[in-house]
Amino acid sequence: MMKKASLFTILLLISSSAAFADQINFVFSFGAPGTMSAQSSGFSAGPAPLIQVTDATTNVTKLLSGTWTTSAGPASSIVAVPGTLLATFTPGSLNSVFIHQGSTVLLSGITGDAGRFLAASGPNGTAAYFADFLVTEVDPAVLAMFRLGPGFAPIGTVSATGGTVNIAGLGATATVGGGSVTIQTVGPPIAEGSTLVLFGSGLVGVGWVARRRLFCNA
Fold first, then answer.
1. Residues 66, 101 contacting (CB under 8 angstroms)
2. H/E run at residue 2
3. Beta-carbon neighbour count of residue 13 at 10 Å?
4. CB 110 within 8 A of CB 131
5. In whole angstroms, what is the distance from residue 58 CA to residue 146 CA?
6. 151 conformational bin, left if phi > 0, alpha if psi -120 to 50, beta if neither
7. Which conformational region is residue 122 in: left (phi greater than 0), alpha (psi within -120 to 50 degrees), or beta?
8. What pLDDT score was predicted for residue 218?
9. How far is residue 61 CA from its own chain's centroid?
10. Residues 155, 82: one domain?
């Protein structure tokens, strides 16, 4: 019985202090006409307004204003058929994923290889872009809003949709319709009151088991 109790209290301690990851989404909205472009020379999207940041793991959302832009290097392949264009792009340069609020950098990174763009023209034409990116900076104050940080995983994703598509030859333009930049946090959260109580309960449990064993061996 005491062995089970001891095991339980150890697991309690571990679970109360274990590291975990939350998915954080930076959500942006509509851009101005022509704010998405896919050409043989490269891809660019934005500026578009950041409207909120969401912790998808806990379903907590914080309103946050800012500006988002994304770009990538020259196309490694472009396929165009009437009314449709599919392109793959090479990595972008420094800050090719960039979210800022005035002079404050909220997030920055470098788009990776094989970012993909797909566009279809017509009355209801749409466009979409998706890429992995190397996360180089995340404002600790943003993560602290969710009692997280300051650590973050090195790879994130960026996705954007577009409308009012115009395809011409081996290129296309569109209007940013929204999207998100997603990262993962790493490390334990900033301790809350309930977490401290749980941790304290584990310590009391360990102390109780140790005391029982001491009296039994006396």
1. yes
2. helix 2-17
3. 17
4. no
5. 9
6. beta
7. left
8. 55
9. 13
10. yes
- Structure-token pair, residue 84: 């449709």
Give the structural domain span for 14: 1-18+191-218
Residues in the chain, total: 218
Per-residue pLDDT tens over the stretch 18-76 = 445 899 999 999 999 999 999 999 999 999 999 999 999 999 999 999 999 999 999 99
Alpha-carbon distance 126 to 13, whole Å? 51
Summarize pLDDT for 149-165 with one digit per residue, the tens: 899 999 999 999 999 99
- Cα–Cα distances in angstroms (integers) from residue 92 to residues 68, 106, 120, 212, in the given order: 15, 19, 24, 63
Q: What is the DSSP letter of 217?
A: H
Question: Number of structural domains, the chain?
Answer: 2
Q: Tokens 């109580």 appear where?
A: 197
Residues sharing a CB contact under 8 Å with residue 4, sequence separation 6 or more, in sequence order: none
- Same domain (yes/no): 59, 93: yes
Instruction: Measure Cα distances from 135 to 160, 203, 215 in Å.
Output: 17, 38, 55
